[in-house]
Amino acid sequence: VVLSATRRGLPKPKMSENGVVPRAKVLTIDTMNPTVKNVEYAVRGPIVARAVELEKELSEGMKKPFAEVIKANIGDAHAMGQQPITFFRQVLALCSYPELLNDSTFPEDAKSRARRILQSCGGNSMGSYSASQGIDSVRQDVARYIERRDGGVPCDPDDIYLTTGASDGIMTMLKLLVCGEGVTRTGVMISIPQYPLYSAALAELGAVQINYYLNEEKCWSLDISELQRALDEARHHCNPRALCIINPGNPTGQVQSRECIEDVIRFAAKEGLFLMADEVYQDNVYADGCQFHSFKKVLFEMGPEYSDTVELASFHSTSKCYMGECGFRGGYMEIINMDDEVKAQLTKLVSVRLCPPVPGQALMDLVVNPPQPGEPSYDNFIKERTATLSALAEKAKLTEQILNTVHGISCNPVQGAMYSFPRIIIPEKADKGQQPDMFYCMKMLEETGICLVPGSGFGQKDGTYHFRMTILPPRDKLQILLNKVKEFHQKFTKHYS
Amino acid sequence: VVLSATRRGLPKPKMSENGVVPRAKVLTIDTMNPTVKNVEYAVRGPIVARAVELEKELSEGMKKPFAEVIKANIGDAHAMGQQPITFFRQVLALCSYPELLNDSTFPEDAKSRARRILQSCGGNSMGSYSASQGIDSVRQDVARYIERRDGGVPCDPDDIYLTTGASDGIMTMLKLLVCGEGVTRTGVMISIPQYPLYSAALAELGAVQINYYLNEEKCWSLDISELQRALDEARHHCNPRALCIINPGNPTGQVQSRECIEDVIRFAAKEGLFLMADEVYQDNVYADGCQFHSFKKVLFEMGPEYSDTVELASFHSTSKCYMGECGFRGGYMEIINMDDEVKAQLTKLVSVRLCPPVPGQALMDLVVNPPQPGEPSYDNFIKERTATLSALAEKAKLTEQILNTVHGISCNPVQGAMYSFPRIIIPEKADKGQQPDMFYCMKMLEETGICLVPGSGFGQKDGTYHFRMTILPPRDKLQILLNKVKEFHQKFTKHYS
């Protein structure tokens, strides 16, 4: 042991009192993977850890200035009281326990959907491994969904990979792209503010993060000139190879215009960048005049000069939209124009993990193939979906309205997704050594029980401060929460001015 | 584009006939992540790809010398006709569609289990994210299970991390361990033969694989002198930091003796190695006189000199044993003596992926907390579990017996796990440029429809050949399959002699 510690350049272990040399740990903070140390993920960072502690303290009867902790830090719809879609859960129950196929209380369309899923499973059981790329019939349903969504642009099921949530697909694609050292090391362009999965994945992979800033003054829009600036600067120190876009935006809630998407595709083509389109909020569009345009559709409508050449991966998930089924970890990615040899490598790589969770695959199948007009579950499905989406639209507006009444808070319209990302003015006296927005959010948590994520966890322009807040709590609760934020902000500003 | 291609040292793209410069792909086999290219995973390699093709050809009516493809390549119990445990699936159905809690046909113990799981989920829904380390109550149940299994050795729920199958946990632990460059690069000791997740993970992480050979002559036992040899040689070119053990063995089916485990622990302590114990087959022990001993239990019974210092991660899964629920991707790892700062880093790292699939967590909970005596589902649970495990024990014996009747095949007893890994003699004339055992298995697939994995996918001593075959097909089918293997081997040997 002494020998091996010396080999690694560690200090010699000391004798303990009884003369026994205590063994040094094999794995310490100094000898662990350095890229893992660089990973940060604010959505579940120190604020959330403290929120969990506070919940425990409350449950143990400790007195606090609030009765409950409200976690508005993460897009976790069911945890905020959103109800699952009945049809989806009926089919999942049928697939889990096929005896229920004999139960007359289940609707026929749920049963036929369950039978079809089970027939695609080895031994008719969700307990079997699926193909690593995902169940064939599910990938076919995904392809047909994409064709419908994109007005008939063709989609090949062979281009679909089912994933363990969207995060898994994004991580896998980034993994393929990373190579080189020093100035040839792969660089990946991500928006600032960004969803911190991207920065975390790049840190873990040791890739170079290239920041392009969204324009807060223009409702968090994406300017091509800013892409160009970021790219040109990055070319001096790394090899930029990919451009990541989140649309609708997380944490910023903007919905990209068709023109903007065209410009981005032209830019990627001109500069030789692999496009990654994170489109998990594709059903979450609320603002008048806004519409979701998939990168795939726009790409194909730009003609073969682009549609035959630009490499694109687009990601979707069961976790967001109107279903909010985060716990099932369902998702897919569509891969366009990928080199055949690389695609074979991708298939090999995902095979090591065997397969994505089959219940998540089943759920993804239901999302892309929901009840159709004339089927017994159709009306109720539409009713439930509409109720959830209209409630979200209403809460998006409410959030913007109330936050903008507060002096020192300014909030862009929440056009889509599930978050507001308002700018907050923090008095200079509140600059206490730690990040001022972290200090602000921690104070808010301790005083009000509201758990938000500081803007620094997503990235923001130097000298500006923000927080991310989900719009998911039920309307009444959200209103109370927003008023508490208002009150807290006023008190905080007064105290530190 | 020309510029960026040149920057990467690629050949200049050519003009096409219409004068347009076709865009080069951003991502090619030459410009992708080189570590991914080094990954190999035989369990789902070219043989399996061909098996899937053959199934398709059969279904399209093409004539073959066999009526069906039998996939004995992967431990996929339900796909081979094993039935799920009724109680588990009832609880999963109840958790998926809680309306069923009002259904009087479900037993009360299934309902109370479902209620307990749902109460631990945000918003009482499996659709919520769980804590990244896993649901608290499930981790508590896992800890109590480990304590019962290990005769009262204490287990702290804080040391339990729920995972997406065991593969996910193993990959995560290896990721923490990798650092250094050149002769200081992390080396990890794995058995040969091994389960190829290990070699694939090490290739992807760019760690050094250190092979130690199991002793086929002594029923695939592990000799400490061989560990020492492998370690001493490896120290010249890398920094060995971890030792992986699979017990019961995959693909080799041996069950380690208590003495052997003690020796391994002493060796790891002496040499400063982090122990990783893959114990996913802990209920799959068939041979008389064999018994499963967990590394955790043995470690703690060796006294504080070891139990206070040796770092150990042990892995379990819902995919094997008597339940065989692979598709749900459930699993856990227990971490012993890990440095606190490293543990905090581990928790941060897993938080980036948000959480393991919640249905898999629920299933893991049922595995560690099955029906108890006196509960309504107890008798049926025991009946189902016993039936599966005794059938496996019988098939383990049958496999060994029939294979050993074949001249040129010798098979160690299948003491545990789900595979036989017989040695096969391949005539020199069958050495056709590709790996002889790959050639043998591909021939067998084309002629008999039986899908096995060549020994080269797991590693074997130079000049020896093997295949891995699961013992999972139903008894009748297994007997037919074994007789076909026998017939094929005789024909093949005759043909190439």
UniProtKB/TrEMBL annotation, chains A, B:
<dbReference type="InterPro" id="IPR004839">
    <property type="entry name" value="Aminotransferase_I/II_large"/>
</dbReference>
<comment type="similarity">
    <text>Belongs to the class-I pyridoxal-phosphate-dependent aminotransferase family. Alanine aminotransferase subfamily.</text>
</comment>
<dbReference type="GO" id="GO:0005737">
    <property type="term" value="C:cytoplasm"/>
</dbReference>
<comment type="pathway">
    <text>Amino-acid degradation; L-alanine degradation via transaminase pathway; pyruvate from L-alanine: step 1/1.</text>
</comment>
<dbReference type="InterPro" id="IPR015422">
    <property type="entry name" value="PyrdxlP-dep_Trfase_small"/>
</dbReference>
<dbReference type="Pfam" id="PF00155">
    <property type="entry name" value="Aminotran_1_2"/>
</dbReference>
<dbReference type="InterPro" id="IPR045088">
    <property type="entry name" value="ALAT1/2-like"/>
</dbReference>
<dbReference type="GO" id="GO:0042853">
    <property type="term" value="P:L-alanine catabolic process"/>
</dbReference>
<dbReference type="InterPro" id="IPR015424">
    <property type="entry name" value="PyrdxlP-dep_Trfase"/>
</dbReference>
<comment type="subunit">
    <text>Homodimer.</text>
</comment>
<keyword id="KW-0663">Pyridoxal phosphate</keyword>
<feature type="domain" description="Aminotransferase class I/classII large">
    <location>
        <begin position="106"/>
        <end position="484"/>
    </location>
</feature>
<keyword id="KW-0032">Aminotransferase</keyword>
<comment type="function">
    <text>Catalyzes the reversible transamination between alanine and 2-oxoglutarate to form pyruvate and glutamate.</text>
</comment>
<dbReference type="GO" id="GO:0030170">
    <property type="term" value="F:pyridoxal phosphate binding"/>
</dbReference>
<protein>
    <recommendedName>
        <fullName>alanine transaminase</fullName>
        <ecNumber>2.6.1.2</ecNumber>
    </recommendedName>
</protein>
<dbReference type="GO" id="GO:0004021">
    <property type="term" value="F:L-alanine:2-oxoglutarate aminotransferase activity"/>
</dbReference>
<keyword id="KW-0808">Transferase</keyword>
<dbReference type="InterPro" id="IPR015421">
    <property type="entry name" value="PyrdxlP-dep_Trfase_major"/>
</dbReference>
